[in-house]
Design a protein that fits this description.
single chain; Heat Shock Protein 90; Ribosomal Protein S5, domain 2; 5-stranded mixed beta sheet; 16 helices
């Protein structure tokens, strides 16, 4: 049993490390872009083919590398960013772990061309699966050009689990935006399959946001700025009326590094409290500048999570800053406490002022009738017994309960618990809190969640439409243009044909915009914009939380957004039809996500409650 523990070969160790750092083509784009920014470049081009599966090329005009440096760059834990452990407490660069280049080289065919500005000849390095196959002098421009081809060629299982080209390219766009947005002193270009998608020149932060998300966003931005001894906040937030049901325009940067923080996102949401409807998300593009010594960016391989020493203090500052920004731009009701409001008494020497007086009528008698009749009003208390019920009627009363609704009538009869349920009673339905439907059955009472029931019905209907290719659409009187982020636009391009089978009549209409000509026949929404935004957002949420195919996910997303909502009053006929359709479903007792639709309370359970 001796000598069981051995050191892993370098190529195996590199592949394991690559599994943490390089998960998909977007991960390669992120790491190479960060290196390009750290190199001091002010012009960066990203060239992509086949969503990064065939080629990812990053070209920059940064400092470049010498012959020895380019060879060391693909070794594990090789970096120029830190020299000792103390440097970890003052990190100001993006790439510092020394894992990215080695991890990429381990799972691809990589070619690096690089030249420092003070050299006449550059170097080309070719690596295949961590093995150097070529290194020699070459003619190239100053800076570095890194090409990554055939990603995961030597890990077929990893390549097999890559998603569709549209899905992978959406992730690449996300990573590109997260790097390009804060680095406004660098010009960026993104080309996919020889089609230029972004060309972002140097400029201000506002110009960069508009360049990434389109000119329509310019009028929706509100500047937010605050400087404190702990943190400086600078950026833009969206006007409340511009909030969307879809995510995608929420960006938080710490020292120009994109981070994910549910805690700080909650601070933003609190600033918009009571200004936007529930379920809507405000846009924000915020840069936080803070001393690197009081944060830790080394807690996650992808470096998208940051630990703060004074997290609660920053939370308060962030929320207050955004509330102030909304108030200053008259987006929330506010009082002007800065004005000096004085209340002065009228001058004493004004003889022309009318002084109010009190006139008293000493002959007024409130108990006398009007006119000449001076008889006092009657104070008799006869007939008092008419205000109280007779004793024999006390036990025979009707009650009215605002929580129970039976169509347009109320329940008002004495119930005999010993009697059997009649056929007429079995067909009676009662709505509670405009959320649940109660139906008496022989074994007790059946409780149905009205929204979940309708969601199950619509899900099976939409799924059948997708499988059979049948759909019915109601045309819009006036077509509606809906603008999306790059991510959501590419997602809709991928889903367009399936959406048409569900009844949506949509077509591409310019950059990042779809025109909606029609919606499913079952939809009662007058404005298709929030509906299609909600479907896209729900689709993304389901994709992350549920293991559903594309068609099932679409059916779930549309069903959830078009189902009868809690709070809607239903008539007897509506409740009857809903229950009939529910029990015509293949799986009536649970929603597609597994939530309970129907619950039965037996008579025995009720009797135990009253013991």
């Amino acid at each position: 049993m001796a000598n069981l523990i051995k050191l892993l070969p370098d190529h195996v160790a590199n592949q394991i490390a690559a599994g943490e750092v390089i998960q998909r083509p977007g991960s390669v784009v992120k790491e190479l872009l960060e290196n390009a920014v750290d190199s001091g470049a002010d012009d960066i081009t990203v060239n992509i083919k086949d969503a990064g599966k065939s080629l990812i090329q990053i070209i920059d005009n940064g400092c470049g590398m010498g012959e020895a440096d380019v060879r060391m760059s693909i070794e594990r834990h090789a970096t120029s960013k830190i020299a000792d452990a103390q440097d970890l407490f003052s990190i100001k660069t993006f790439g510092f772990r020394g894992e990215a280049m080695a991890s990429i080289a381990a799972v691809s065919h990589m070619e690096i061309k690089t030249k420092p500005h003070d050299k006449d000849v550059g170097t080309i390095l070719v690596v295949e699966g961590s093995k150097i196959t070529k290194q020699e002098p070459c003619s190239t421009s100053s800076g570095t050009s890194t090409s990554v081809k055939n990603l995961f060629y030597n890990i077929p299982a990893r390549r097999k689990f890559l998603k569709s080209d549209n899905a992978e390219f959406r992730n690449i766009i996300d990573e590109f935006q997260r790097i390009a947005l804060p680095n406004v002193n660098i010009s960026f270009k993104l080309v996919h399959n020889n089609n230029e998608l972004f060309h972002l020149p140097k400029g201000s932060f506002r110009q960069r946001v508009v360049g990434v998300f389109g000119k329509n966003i310019n009028q929706k931005l509100v500047p937010a700025k605050e400087e404190t001894s702990l943190v400086n906040i600078n950026g833009f937030i969206g006007k409340p009326e511009a909030a969307k049901k879809t995510r995608g325009e929420q960006f938080l940067f710490v020292n120009n590094r994109y981070i994910k923080s549910n805690y700080f996102h909650h601070a933003v949401q609190l600033a918009y409290e009571k200004l936007i409807p529930e379920g809507y998300h405000p846009s924000y593009f915020l840069k936080l500048d803070i001393d690197p010594a009081v944060i830790d960016v080394n807690i996650h391989p992808t470096k998208t999570e940051v630990k703060f020493e004074a997290e609660k203090d920053i939370f308060v500052i962030l929320r207050t800053t955004l509330k102030k920004a909304l108030g200053q731009h008259n987006l929330v009701p506010s009082l002007d406490f800065s004005s000096d409001v004085q209340f002065s008494a009228p001058p004493k020497d004004r003889s022309d002022l009318d002084t109010p007086g009190v006139i008293v009528n000493p002959d007024f008698n409130p108990f006398k009738q009007k006119g000449n009749n001076q008889q006092p009003r009657s104070t008799s208390i006869s007939g008092w017994e008419t205000f109280f019920p007779k004793s024999e009627d006390i036990n025979q009363f009707s009650f009215e309960n605002d929580f129970f609704e039976k169509g347009e009538t109320r329940i008002g009869s004495k119930i005999n618990a010993e009697s059997e349920i009649t056929a007429e009673e079995e067909k009676s339905f009662f709505q509670i809190h405009r959320k649940f439907i109660l139906s008496p059955i022989k074994s007790g009472v059946m409780v149905i969640h009205q929204q979940r029931a309708h969601e199950r019905i619509l899900f099976e209907k939409y799924l059948q439409n997708l499988e059979e290719g049948k759909s019915y659409s109601q045309q819009q009187l006036f077509p509606v243009n809906v603008e999306f982020s790059n991510y959501d636009f590419n997602l809709l391009k991928e889903l367009k044909e399936d959406l048409k089978m569900l009844g949506f009549d949509i077509e591409e209409f310019g950059k990042n915009t779809f025109i909606v000509n029609g919606v499913p026949a079952e939809v009662n929404e007058t404005d298709p914009k929030p509906l299609i935004e909600s479907v896209v957002e729900q689709y993304k949420i389901n994709r992350d939380k549920l293991t559903l195919g594309k068609k099932e996910n679409l059916a779930v997303s549309l069903a959830r957004n078009t189902s009868i909502k809690v709070g809607r009053k239903l008539a007897q006929e509506e409740m009857a039809n809903l229950i009939d359709e529910l029990f015509g479903c293949s799986l009536p007792y649970h929603t597609p996500s597994g939530k309970t639709v129907v619950h039965t309370i037996t008579t025995n359970e009720l009797e135990k409650r009253f013991e």
